[in-house]
Amino acid sequence: MTSSTGALRPLLLGLGIMLVAFNMRPALTSVGPLLDAIRTATGLGNVGAAYLTTLPVLCIGLACTLGPVVIRRLGADRGVLLAVAVVALGSGLRGLGGLEPLFIGACLAAFGIGLSGVLLPGLVKREFPARVGLMTGLYTMVLCLGAAAGAGFSVPLARATDSWSFALGLWGLPALMATLAWIPFARRPDPAERAVRRRPLWRDPLAWQVTGFMGLQSSLAYILFGWLPVVLQSRGLDATEAGFVASLMSIGQAPFALLVPSFAARAKDQRLYAAALLALAVMTILGLVFGPLAFALPFGMLLGGSLGGLFGLGLTIIVLRARDTAGAADLAAMSQSVGYTLASLGPLGFGLAHDLTGGWGASVALFCLIAAAAWLCSLGAGRNRTVGTR
Predict the structure, then answer these.
(1) Burial (CB count within 10 angstroms: exposed 0-12, middle 13-18, buried 19+), residue 390
(2) Which of 8, 114, 219, 220: disulfide with 60, CB 3.0–4.6 Å?
(3) In whole angstroms, what is the distance from residue 198 CA to residue 68 CA?
(4) DSSP string, 251-293
């Protein structure tokens, strides 16, 4: 019985990680398709909408700073349980209606998302050291499918229930299911795990390059999670059509999110992957904003592929640039705390640029500048080196 349970544990743990990963994006991607309905019902202006898409990303960054503390106090396994429970609470809170529950719930859910994002890379390195690329790709793919579900089903749910807030609150249910499913894995931390004191990385240039790449490529994704449906509706698509394109963008992330980490983990150098994916992101956003709407669906799928590949590549680089499990958690905490704080400025800047100019040209130019900065960071982050060495 014991040996059978031990043999099944990696499979069950892997499934548990996938359930947690599924809930790391719907709280973020479900808002964009409903943003016009929220603004109509609550009187939320353009600046308020920009803050609604920015504050959760900032909360993700703040939560990431607590990763090492949570590992020492609770252990990574119990930390994941706490994180996904907070996602469930925050997502459900949005169902109460009104701006206060919406903002508070969004920030709470984002806090749980940020905490789980720091803990999962270390768990993968600890539990699946020989399959880092495969497991990173799998949970990134499932994460992208969760993003697609949030983008694609939120408008139909709102219309079926005649309530945007109830539709947002329903996303607390899959997070609650993941919380219950993770309970068997919430074991006590090993004394050695709690005793680890991680080396500071703030003076390590490579750590900063990884942080810059992670934050800037995430900024591109969060810009599009929050603003792509609005852009498409301004071009003439209705809310359902715009949500469908956003959902396809998220679905398009899945195959790239699976394949890019698997191939990149085997390569000696990840710089070419970063350059190709960033170029694809720039070309497809230009096509969506300025090209014919007849090509919105294929452009959306390709844009999603670039974003999914970049996110999977960023997570893979974190694991590859670390020498051990503790180093992976440390680098994940730094790159995601600082990185997501940096990423939070993207949606805000994108929205403010539109508000100031009345068009999308300046906003798209900002997107391209962020992509160029991410490429510059990838020149260092993609090298075959590890943090803490020269």
Answers:
(1) exposed
(2) 114
(3) 8
(4) HHHHHHHHHHHHHHTTSS--HHHHHHHHHHHHHHHHHHHHS-G
pLDDT for 31-90, tens place per residue?
888 888 888 888 888 788 878 877 887 888 788 888 778 877 888 889 999 999 999 999
Structural domains of the chain sorted by starting position, each given as residue range(s) with its CATH number in brackets:
2-381 (1.20.1250.20)
Dist. CA 141–CA 147, nearest whole Å: 10
- Separation in Å, CA 72 to CA 5, 75, 154, 184, 378: 27, 6, 37, 20, 31
Yes or no: say if 58 and 138 are a contact pair by the CB < 8 Å rule.
no
Smallest CA-to-CA distance from 113 within 146, 153, 158 is with 146
CA gap 145, 63 in Å, rounded: 23
Start-to-end CA span in the chain (Å) = 48
User: Cβ of 192: how many Cβ atoms within 10 Å?
Assistant: 8
